[in-house]
Amino acid sequence: MSQRQIPEASVARLPLYLRALIDRAEAGVESMSSGELAAAAGVNSAKIRKDLSYLGSYGTRGVGYDVEYLIAQISRELGLTQDWSTVLVGAGNLGQALANYGGFADRGFRIAAILDADPAKVGMTVAGVEVFHQDQAERIIREEDVAIAILAVPGDAAQEVADRLVEAGVTSILNFAPAVIQVPEGVSLRKVDLSIELQILAYYEQRRLVSDDLANGAVRRHLDGLPD
């Protein structure tokens, strides 16, 4: 792991590079230029060279980056060379979908337990993981040495649940709940809001429709001006 502090924006792009590199490694590719990696990750090559320079990786002129070596570098920097025990809070539709997502285990994130406040869900098994009552949070977090929690609870319960998780020793939270929550200094928080992402897509769709309407209107006006 590098000792130099990496900017947050660069850290956010490292998983994109890792996914692209793993895809290419599985296809038998041994080296990639910054341009090829940029195209695969959806960023420009200048950003890639800058981001990877924080890891001390500069590639080889005329050859590019060694794919397997770069995978190892980024994985080490992201802390993916060890397994992380996590708890998933919320066994509703979203929580069950997240529990069934195989990508967590593939990247070293083991869901040690699922927690829920509904007694009717306690005792269920989702994707091979038992559902416990939220009252067991402190015990499970201590026994499983959990640092990361995934929050998939209703918005009105999110802050209270987050507070309890932090008190129990959780230091990182991935929040899928439709609510803005506050955490104390020293606790990392990432939010995934699917409705916001859809609204952003809707904005671009609306712009596309308006652009098409304007273009079609211009064509009609042009045709109207032509002689019969």
TrEMBL record:
<keyword id="KW-0804">Transcription</keyword>
<dbReference type="Pfam" id="PF06971">
    <property type="entry name" value="Put_DNA-bind_N"/>
</dbReference>
<dbReference type="InterPro" id="IPR009718">
    <property type="entry name" value="Rex_DNA-bd_C_dom"/>
</dbReference>
<dbReference type="GO" id="GO:0005737">
    <property type="term" value="C:cytoplasm"/>
</dbReference>
<dbReference type="InterPro" id="IPR058236">
    <property type="entry name" value="Rex_actinobacterial-type"/>
</dbReference>
<dbReference type="InterPro" id="IPR003781">
    <property type="entry name" value="CoA-bd"/>
</dbReference>
<dbReference type="InterPro" id="IPR036388">
    <property type="entry name" value="WH-like_DNA-bd_sf"/>
</dbReference>
<comment type="similarity">
    <text>Belongs to the transcriptional regulatory Rex family.</text>
</comment>
<dbReference type="Pfam" id="PF02629">
    <property type="entry name" value="CoA_binding"/>
</dbReference>
<feature type="binding site">
    <location>
        <begin position="90"/>
        <end position="95"/>
    </location>
    <ligand>
        <name>NAD(+)</name>
    </ligand>
</feature>
<dbReference type="GO" id="GO:0003677">
    <property type="term" value="F:DNA binding"/>
</dbReference>
<dbReference type="GO" id="GO:0003700">
    <property type="term" value="F:DNA-binding transcription factor activity"/>
</dbReference>
<keyword id="KW-0238">DNA-binding</keyword>
<comment type="subunit">
    <text>Homodimer.</text>
</comment>
<protein>
    <recommendedName>
        <fullName>Redox-sensing transcriptional repressor Rex</fullName>
    </recommendedName>
</protein>
<feature type="domain" description="CoA-binding">
    <location>
        <begin position="79"/>
        <end position="180"/>
    </location>
</feature>
<keyword id="KW-0963">Cytoplasm</keyword>
<keyword id="KW-0520">NAD</keyword>
<comment type="function">
    <text>Modulates transcription in response to changes in cellular NADH/NAD(+) redox state.</text>
</comment>
<dbReference type="InterPro" id="IPR036291">
    <property type="entry name" value="NAD(P)-bd_dom_sf"/>
</dbReference>
<dbReference type="InterPro" id="IPR036390">
    <property type="entry name" value="WH_DNA-bd_sf"/>
</dbReference>
<keyword id="KW-0678">Repressor</keyword>
<feature type="DNA-binding region" description="H-T-H motif">
    <location>
        <begin position="16"/>
        <end position="55"/>
    </location>
</feature>
<dbReference type="GO" id="GO:0051775">
    <property type="term" value="P:response to redox state"/>
</dbReference>
<dbReference type="InterPro" id="IPR022876">
    <property type="entry name" value="Tscrpt_rep_Rex"/>
</dbReference>
<dbReference type="GO" id="GO:0045892">
    <property type="term" value="P:negative regulation of DNA-templated transcription"/>
</dbReference>
<keyword id="KW-0805">Transcription regulation</keyword>
